Amino acid sequence: MGISGSDAAGTTIGEASEREALRRIFPRLPESDATLVGPGDDAAVLAAPDGRFVVTTDMMVHGPDFRLAWSGPEDLGWKAAATNLSDIAAMGAVPTALVVAIAAPPETPVAWLEGVADGFRLACTELAPGCGVVGGDLSVSATLTFAVTAFGDLGGRRPVLRSGARPGDVVAVSGALGRAAAGLHALFTEAVDAAGEPDASRLAAVVAAHPDTVSAQLRPRPPIGDGPLAADAGATAMLDLSDGLALDARRVAEASGVAIDLDPAALGPDLRTALTGGEDHGLLATFPPGTRLPGGFRTIGAVHEGRGLRVGGRPFDERGGWDPYLEWDGRRG
Amino acid sequence: MGISGSDAAGTTIGEASEREALRRIFPRLPESDATLVGPGDDAAVLAAPDGRFVVTTDMMVHGPDFRLAWSGPEDLGWKAAATNLSDIAAMGAVPTALVVAIAAPPETPVAWLEGVADGFRLACTELAPGCGVVGGDLSVSATLTFAVTAFGDLGGRRPVLRSGARPGDVVAVSGALGRAAAGLHALFTEAVDAAGEPDASRLAAVVAAHPDTVSAQLRPRPPIGDGPLAADAGATAMLDLSDGLALDARRVAEASGVAIDLDPAALGPDLRTALTGGEDHGLLATFPPGTRLPGGFRTIGAVHEGRGLRVGGRPFDERGGWDPYLEWDGRRG
């Protein structure tokens, strides 16, 4: 299973010119309300009404970051958009636009890339209306690679950094904890062949058995709108939960020079997965005491004087999360 | 020859944590004058004093876009910066910042990536002072891949598009024509082994024999400052010469609905390479008749009523340039 296997018919990017491929892909991409000069010139020009803009960039590489046996083109476009949009929201900004660079093997059908474009459109439409793709690049590579850069507008808000948590603040989260990691676990234990390799033929059964968690892994739905709401409510610190609650909460504690104590009763029945599972793409934020929490935020702990992370008052030093540097073996693919 | 061969000593990115790798790389990167919030948070925040910003993104993939046998880490950082800066300049904007995503094999030494960072710093310092790297991403991949997104500020200028050339305009270029292609030709004919594969052991001799052209290929020096100067002088159309003068001039003609006639006497002794050689990264612009050409621009032709490209009054339909879709064989590497 792979790119070419998923759609054997039709022109490949090795056969089409870049221009021909882009002519088919661009009409499917979402438009941005911020566009002043769109795709087709050397560069795009975007409105920055705030006089500042927020920018983040992230790559998704086949192997460490996704498997074609499990993710279709729409899934990949969706996830590449959603994870970047979440980083913009975590600053308190409203996502305005994306640029997308894709490197794909020559045998990739252009139709497969149209599916990727559809995923970008669906994600922007559902998660961040008004945000669209304003430019891109298409290259050939032996390794399928997505590089997305996202932009946001602060609308006059102060950007919410990781470093602003203060003793006495409430620790809150928006979005489910551990669900994406549970989905990845289900895929790696049940959607594999006898040798433990990803097996597309077993995907449907695993999706049917674990619809919510597999969907959280393959098509995450970050609470984008809660980012600006948190900033408006006075959030003192915020970040996108990408590497597991424990690791990310420790980052806020360290950047802010405080201790964070999480309440295990607020973290759901599977405490360990909630703490160490990566790719939640919820928002972790701290608010001054007494703040009426906005949107989907709920209290999960408190900020104290001190250093580091505690869970139920006891130091929690497990790393958790997913570090592709340490855990991906490039030779296994 | 490859990444691991160039520096066998030291920690690799497969051994270091992402955090440890970034801690070594970031201090070497150039700083941006536009930075309001720099690296280390979910996203950066940049000043956009004009109320708009210009953005372009481009990937460089090992194989189709560069060879490790010929390019060292500083060369690659330099070229990834320079080619993106040139797209910003071609809109008439001043480059302000870059974000850089790199995917590299696990065996890549962190020291090698420090060299890449040095290349980014040298290029920004020399070509676009005040422009710096404000964020990035580091991933593991079997295929070494750079994805750079660049930003620029128009300072109140109207962006210069490809579509504004008018009959009667002067066609002008800033930067050498065909030199980078001549360098690539020298590498592919002289810096290869008996099987025609890139051979690092022959590089020094080829550089010594063809210093200007090989340098134009490996460390291009686009005339970044001439982009805003052209806009100020009233340029009606402009683009970055990346795919060969003939192909790029035809793009301006097509987007503008005009004919462009180039004067062969103005294109130097090797007319064919000047017309069809890619990766010049000079600026091609059109100016109203009588304009005093700014910076390094020199006249090479004129805009007429009609369609398409002519050279010395005769239609020129050769494609030229370099299309990795059509010309790169991924199986050969």
Automatic annotation (TrEMBL), chains A, B:
HAMAP family: TMP_kinase. The gene is thiL. The keyword Nucleotide-binding applies. ATP binds at G136, D137, R162, S242. It is an enzyme of class 2 (transferase). Catalyzes the ATP-dependent phosphorylation of thiamine-monophosphate (TMP) to form thiamine-pyrophosphate (TPP), the active form of vitamin B1. It comes from the Bacteria. GO terms for molecular function: ATP binding; magnesium ion binding; thiamine-phosphate kinase activity. Reaction mechanism of ThiL seems to utilize a direct, inline transfer of the gamma-phosphate of ATP to TMP rather than a phosphorylated enzyme intermediate. Keywords: ATP-binding, Kinase, Magnesium, Metal-binding, Nucleotide-binding, Thiamine biosynthesis, Transferase. Its EC number is 2.7.4.16. Belongs to the thiamine-monophosphate kinase family. Mg(2+) 1 binds at T57, D58, D137. It catalyses: thiamine phosphate + ATP = thiamine diphosphate + ADP. Pathway: Cofactor biosynthesis; thiamine diphosphate biosynthesis; thiamine diphosphate from thiamine phosphate: step 1/1. Mg(2+) 4 binds at D42, T56, D87. GO terms for biological process: thiamine biosynthetic process; thiamine diphosphate biosynthetic process. Substrate binds at D65, E279, W322. InterPro entries: PurM-like_C_sf (IPR036676), PurM-like_N (IPR016188), PurM-like_N_sf (IPR036921), ThiL-like (IPR006283). Residues 40-152 form the PurM-like N-terminal domain. Pfam families: AIRS. Mg(2+) 5 binds at D243. This is Thiamine-monophosphate kinase. Mg(2+) 2 binds at D58, D87. Mg(2+) 3 binds at D42, D87, D240. It comes from Leifsonia soli.
